[in-house]
From TrEMBL:
Pfam families in UniProt: Ribul_P_3_epim
Organism: Collinsella ureilytica
Active site (record annotation): D34 (proton acceptor), D174 (proton donor)
Keywords tagged on the record: Carbohydrate metabolism, Isomerase, Metal-binding
Name of the protein described by the UniProt record: Ribulose-phosphate 3-epimerase
Cofactors that this protein relies on: Zn(2+); Mn(2+); a divalent metal cation; Fe(2+)
Gene designation per UniProt: rpe
Metal-binding among keywords: yes
Length: 218
């Protein structure tokens, strides 16, 4: 398979120095942007205006992870603000097929996110339409949580489901990933690795990206 992509989560950046922190991670593959509404998750983060500000300060594609209740009406805000890909939670979307189609109609890549307790098979009827599946390896809401090992089997199950459907969505994994466990996550089938605290908590975030990338590609 092709080389692993590293997506720093700016949830763990210093919000007062976001421009500087975006520069630190300019050699990454994507910028992961965690949208939380204080309802689907017990935390509140960024809206479309911040996405616009991020877009002005990086050349990297913007990967918008929507941890919001009823994302179906909200995706439009992030499409307009310049998202390159948008993922919505299976648990939160009532009209998932319509929402994925809407995102695609606007030329943006689309994916579905599964919480740790949601099995892979719920994607059976939608997987052929997806550019990406995001497997949560923590319960969403906060950076710096511990990786839930059950995510490894979930990654494999998503991959099998995709193969059976003749589909090849990118598999992204989010939560608790660092240089200590990236190898097993990639070995299970991950294509895109999200890392927040591991990258922004490092003394040299750029070097940490390189270290994780080379471990992931080993
Ligand atoms: C969790 C977010 C993650 C988080 C990852 O709700 O979706 O993107 O920021 O942070 P780490 O890498 O610190 O677990
Ligand atoms: Zn995320």
């Amino acid at each position: 398979s092709s080389s692993v992509q590293i997506a720093p989560s700016i949830l763990s950046a210093d919000m007062a120095w976001l421009g500087r922190d975006l520069e630190y991670v300019s050699q990454a593959d994507l910028i992961h942007f965690d949208v939380m509404d204080g309802h689907f998750t017990g935390n509140l983060t960024f809206g479309p205006d911040i996405l616009r500000a991020v877009k002005r300060n990086t050349d990297l594609p913007l990967d918008v992870h929507m941890m919001v209740s009823d994302p179906d009406h909200m995706v439009e805000w992030f499409v307009e603000a310049g998202a390159d890909m948008i993922t919505v939670h299976w648990e939160a979307s009532t009209h998932l097929h319509r929402t994925i189609s809407f995102i695609h109609e606007h030329g943006v890549r689309a994916g579905v996110v599964l919480n740790p307790a949601t099995p892979a098979h719920v994607l059976e009827s939608i997987i052929s339409d997806l550019d990406m599946v995001l497997v949560m390896s923590v319960n969403p809401g906060f950076g710096g949580q511990r990786f839930i090992p059950g995510a490894l089997a979930k990654i494999k199950a998503v991959k099998r489901l995709a193969e059976q459907a003749g589909a090849a969505p990118l598999i992204e994994v989010d939560g608790g990933i660092s240089a200590n466990n990236i190898e097993e996550v990639v070995a299970a089938g991950a294509d895109v690795i999200v890392a927040g605290s591991a990258i922004f908590g490092a003394t040299d975030p750029a070097a940490e990206i390189e270290r994780m990338r080379s471990l992931g590609n080993a």
